Amino acid sequence: MKKLIAGNWKMNGSLAANEALIKALRAGVGTPACDVAVCPPGAYLAQVQGLLAGQDAIALGAQNVSQHDNGAYTGDVSATMLKELGVRYAIVGHSERRLHQAENDVHVAIKAQRALAAGITPIVCIGESLAEREQGMTEFIVKRQLSAVIHLLEQRVGDIVVAYEPIWAIGTGKTATPEQAQAVHAVLRAQLQAATDKAQEVRILYGGSMNAANAADLLAQPDINGGLIGGASLKADDFLAIVAAAR
Ligand code: PEP
Q1: How many angstroms separate the alpha carbon of residue 171 from the centre of ligand 1?
Q2: 165 part of the active site
């Protein structure tokens, strides 16, 4: 299956910095062997949509989507609105949102459902904390997080992207080893297999300090079908090197 490399810019960027980054990505991306997406902050989606116009190597993604359809939800942005801006992917349930915005498994599942209903592919983030890993709870935690999504989406879970992001590896420079990541990805694949006929087509991304130096080894694992890239997605050369490693 075609891998997916998605850049999560988090709350970084400016009109000028975004323009420079997209220009450099467009100049260097060529015809990638994988799917590529960038997820700028919501305030810049329209700008980046414009900067990406006229090419199809790099798709636009959002970092979040409202769990509501429309109406009195101040500050929220709906999946339909994102779709109008040309958004193809939406990250849901990033651990930073689970932590700072108190998003729980049910919110995340509803967000995934809203995205799918609008024709946007949700990138559903799951992952354990360091304390949970040390207590031997990794499998329990990631299965619980994914099962909420499977429960709500049923067969349509075959249309999502999953991102396994161990919290202890995000922004810390500490990467899961390829073997550690593959072990969790295999658990998730088996869980998907029990839920949908399309489990083999579901891309399971790894995220957590993936960079130009470690990407190839992680991406060589049988159940690692791409990457969700934070810090390294803000530097064109690093992001393009990861894209080149995904074949
Ligand atoms: C992320 O935020 O999704 C992420 C993986 O960040 P980083 O690559 O910086 O660890």
Answers
A1: 5
A2: yes
Counting from 1 in the atom list of ligand 1, the atom nearest the Cα of 231 is: 9
Ligand 1: which residue has its CA nearest to atom 7?
230
Q: Which atom of ligand 1 is nearest to the CA of 209?
A: 10
DSSP symbol at 58: E
139 a catalytic residue: no
Q: Return the structure tokens found at 48.
A: 């980046």
- pLDDT per residue of the chain (247 residues) written in tens, 0 to 9: 999 999 999 999 999 999 999 999 999 999 999 999 999 999 999 999 999 999 999 999 999 999 999 999 999 999 999 999 999 999 999 999 999 999 999 999 999 999 999 999 999 999 999 999 999 999 999 999 999 999 999 999 999 999 999 999 999 999 999 999 999 999 999 999 999 999 999 999 999 999 999 999 999 999 999 999 999 999 999 999 999 999 9
Q: Note if the pTM is more than 0.90.
A: yes
| Of 67, 71, 74, 65, residue with least CA distance to 45 | 65
Give the burial string for 49-69 (b: 16+ CB within 10 Å, else e).
eebbeeeeebbbbbbbbbbee
Ligand 1 centroid – CA 176 distance (Å): 12
